[in-house]
């Protein structure tokens, strides 16, 4: 019998490309059709057929306090009752900006936008304007949203679908982006020397999350800081995933390296559409209306997103939250590793706090090429076996899993029992 999800997917495919509004949701690499979600609560999402899943996607990162948290709902409802958008400044924007600047060392000023894509696109425009240079450096498998300049050797759905760039991005634009291997400072030096005097910015996920999770090696982020300083290149940390995920204050706090510009999104909107970019005051004061660099947004600083973001961050600011997230991420990944070891299955886990990826490979994963040694067929089997047991994972090898404050020890135990069976199934 056809399920309600399958019925909806058939209809959706006639109405929207691939039946979805973002490619990764179509589950193509998993050889299945996606579940359509009716609602979510705490660590669970529930599909339109009434199946309950333990969720490790967390809306691709934002749901760090769990779904439908009562404090977040209350804040959003209160904000909605006062009107959903004014196209004018509000006290909540000031409160969120103040909180972000206080927490994130690289922020002296901030501009709130509606998505991570807007944040990275605007940060790059600012860097180009400030330096008068055109080229940028990024890393293979790094995903920074879908602005033209950034769809070069990108991660996430672009990688999962095996598209190296994207038709529609003019060659003249793509050629301004130089992509090199993550964790490879020599490759960065070579790119900087080869394009000497032309590089405006270097953009990096300080912990990569879109080729699966890949950690920066100890000298990598300090090395990028040094190389950018030597050549007056604007260093941009894309903390859309890592901001307030890996630590209060983000990866820059955790690794002690301060970028010139920082991009945020996901967690700071508590599940509503949001993005932010900010950094050095001298750079940010080049943005209109103070300076000439233009960027705008009808719904930027939207009151509902501000309310959800503030409520989420206030929960995260409570004592012990990041310790709790660390403990859960650590416990789960150590147990899965131990199970795989007993079964003699090749498996590597990269983790930073509550974000991690399981790679089915023997090889340490420090860059895209190594991530691609993972057996994606095995990941597909694993995904299907987990789903059948009520555990919902990112539908791609090249994405991060997220644990939230709402995942209880019992939930993790359930996921581990499912994981044991799934590993046996894909042995
Ligand atoms: C690191 C990173 N940067 C930027 C983006 C773009 O954010 P958005 O999807 O909100 O446009 C994403 C996710 O999509 C991301 O993971
Ligand atoms: N990996 C992406 C963001 O982090 C997934 C979100 C999307 O593209 O829909």
Automatic annotation (TrEMBL):
<dbReference type="InterPro" id="IPR005814">
    <property type="entry name" value="Aminotrans_3"/>
</dbReference>
<dbReference type="InterPro" id="IPR049704">
    <property type="entry name" value="Aminotrans_3_PPA_site"/>
</dbReference>
<dbReference type="GO" id="GO:0030170">
    <property type="term" value="F:pyridoxal phosphate binding"/>
</dbReference>
<comment type="similarity">
    <text>Belongs to the class-III pyridoxal-phosphate-dependent aminotransferase family. HemL subfamily.</text>
</comment>
<dbReference type="InterPro" id="IPR015421">
    <property type="entry name" value="PyrdxlP-dep_Trfase_major"/>
</dbReference>
<dbReference type="GO" id="GO:0042286">
    <property type="term" value="F:glutamate-1-semialdehyde 2,1-aminomutase activity"/>
</dbReference>
<protein>
    <recommendedName>
        <fullName>Glutamate-1-semialdehyde 2,1-aminomutase</fullName>
        <ecNumber>5.4.3.8</ecNumber>
    </recommendedName>
</protein>
<keyword id="KW-0663">Pyridoxal phosphate</keyword>
<dbReference type="GO" id="GO:0005737">
    <property type="term" value="C:cytoplasm"/>
</dbReference>
<keyword id="KW-0627">Porphyrin biosynthesis</keyword>
<dbReference type="InterPro" id="IPR015422">
    <property type="entry name" value="PyrdxlP-dep_Trfase_small"/>
</dbReference>
<feature type="modified residue" description="N6-(pyridoxal phosphate)lysine">
    <location>
        <position position="266"/>
    </location>
</feature>
<dbReference type="GO" id="GO:0006782">
    <property type="term" value="P:protoporphyrinogen IX biosynthetic process"/>
</dbReference>
<dbReference type="GO" id="GO:0008483">
    <property type="term" value="F:transaminase activity"/>
</dbReference>
<keyword id="KW-0963">Cytoplasm</keyword>
<keyword id="KW-0413">Isomerase</keyword>
<comment type="pathway">
    <text>Porphyrin-containing compound metabolism; protoporphyrin-IX biosynthesis; 5-aminolevulinate from L-glutamyl-tRNA(Glu): step 2/2.</text>
</comment>
<dbReference type="Pfam" id="PF00202">
    <property type="entry name" value="Aminotran_3"/>
</dbReference>
<comment type="subunit">
    <text>Homodimer.</text>
</comment>
<dbReference type="InterPro" id="IPR004639">
    <property type="entry name" value="4pyrrol_synth_GluAld_NH2Trfase"/>
</dbReference>
<dbReference type="InterPro" id="IPR015424">
    <property type="entry name" value="PyrdxlP-dep_Trfase"/>
</dbReference>
